[in-house]
Amino acid sequence: MPTLTIPGLIDVHVHLRQPGGEHKEDYASGTAAALAGGVTCVLDMPNTTPPTTTAERLEAKQGLARTNARCDVGVFVGASIDNADEIAAAAPHACALKIYVNSTFGPLRVDNWELLDRHVANWPATKMIVAHAEGDVLDRVLEIAQRHAKPIHIAHVATRQEIEMIVAAKERGQRVTCEVTPHHLVLTRDDLPRLGPFGDVRPRLAGPDDRAALWQHLDYVDCIATDHAPHSIDEKHSDNVPPGLPGLETTLPLMLTAVDEGRLTLERLIALTRTNPERIFNLPPQPDTTVEVEIGPRYRLSNHGLQTKCGWTPFAELEVAGRVVKTVLRGRTVFDGERVLAEPGSGRVLFAAE
């Protein structure tokens, strides 16, 4: 089967769960999943236990990544209700600041507008602010960023209302970028009866019209990011279902299928998964880093053989046309189509102090 070679992907939104959630993912397993999915760099979110809300916790988390990661990792710091005047000191060594304005999994949420204003004002314009801001809240977040002349990146845009707000902001010249997830591009709330708790995610799966709006406005989208957020099968079957689902190993098969169907060009896929993320987050280049893929006969995705520790995907049994054949990081084959060959600790930690 003929293959194509594309640059290694950058996923700007993952939750690798270390420290505190190692039973569902850690740096070794999550970055193995990344390499199996053709992802050679990930940016890891701060809602761990404890949350990454101080310079000291950032340094400790980067130490865990340095010992365990198989691909390159950048680490977010998180805004909290009590760190607005201190967290900017961590900016040189963080990949970005994450602000949760809506509730999600974990303890971080800033829904006080004066406090949010202080966070945006204090954070240096040389590093990105990423906001989880859904629905009407998004409009207020965009206004605060615009008032302080700060660039802002909107995570996991999921609805027609949100993407149209971002289109309007871009067209009036605001420095705003955004990402969409494969699960919001592929699934809708109509899939929930089949998925049950395995479709519980934040932002929630939206309607078919919302999904259509994301595809309709894809030219205004800057990144495809997985929001890889694994939970164990037992947790998903519990009385208190945590929101989140894995995605690192399925993004390329799903998006290459969109290429096969004519919904996306290969050049645009590369922009959404490599060129734009690298530029937006000012990431260092990865020389000699490629993914060999094939677009061929359809096959069904499966829960079997996954590298992610959680051991399931919401896309199981979905027919796809794309497959990762080989991943190369800095000239070394790190995934051969079946096995992850990179050792824990072989990845680099971005922006970390020497």
Describe the structure.
Helix content is 30%, strand content 19%. The chain is an alpha/beta fold. It has one domain (4-335): Metal-dependent hydrolases (TIM Barrel, Alpha-Beta Barrel). The strands form three sheets. It has a six-stranded parallel β-sheet with strand order 5-6-7-8-9-10. A four-stranded antiparallel β-sheet has the order 1-11-12-13. The protein has a three-stranded parallel β-sheet with strand order 2-3-4.
Give a quick precis of the structure.
This protein is α/β, with parallel strands linked by helices and 354 residues long. 30% of the residues lie in helices and 19% in strands. It has a single domain, classed as Metal-dependent hydrolases (TIM Barrel).
Per-chain topology:
Layout: E1 4-7, E2 9-14, H1 27-36, E3 39-44, H2 55-68, E4 72-75, E5 77-78, E6 96-100, H3 113-122, E7 128-132, H4 136-147, E8 152-154, H5 160-171, E9 176-180, H6 182-186, H7 192-195, H8 208-216, E10 223-224, H9 233-236, H10 251-260, H11 266-280, E11 290-300, E12 319-329, E13 332-335
Helix pairs in contact: 4-5, 5-8
Largest sheet entry = 6 strands, parallel
Low-confidence stretches: none
User: Helices and strands, in N-to-C order?
Assistant: EEHEHEEEHEHEHEHHHEHHHEEE
Topology-level CATH name: TIM Barrel
CATH superfamily: Metal-dependent hydrolases
Count of helix runs: 11
- Strand-residue fraction? 15-25%
Order of strands, main sheet, comes to: 5-6-7-8-9-10
What structural class do the secondary elements suggest?
alpha/beta
Number of domains: 1
User: How far is it from the N-terminal to the C-terminal residue, by CA?
Assistant: 45 Å
Helix content: 25-40%
Per DSSP E runs of 2 or more residues, the count of β-strands stands at 13
Mean pLDDT: 97
User: Measured on Cα atoms, how large is the radius of gyration?
Assistant: 19 Å
Question: What CATH architecture label applies?
Answer: Alpha-Beta Barrel
Q: Please write the CATH class name.
A: Alpha Beta
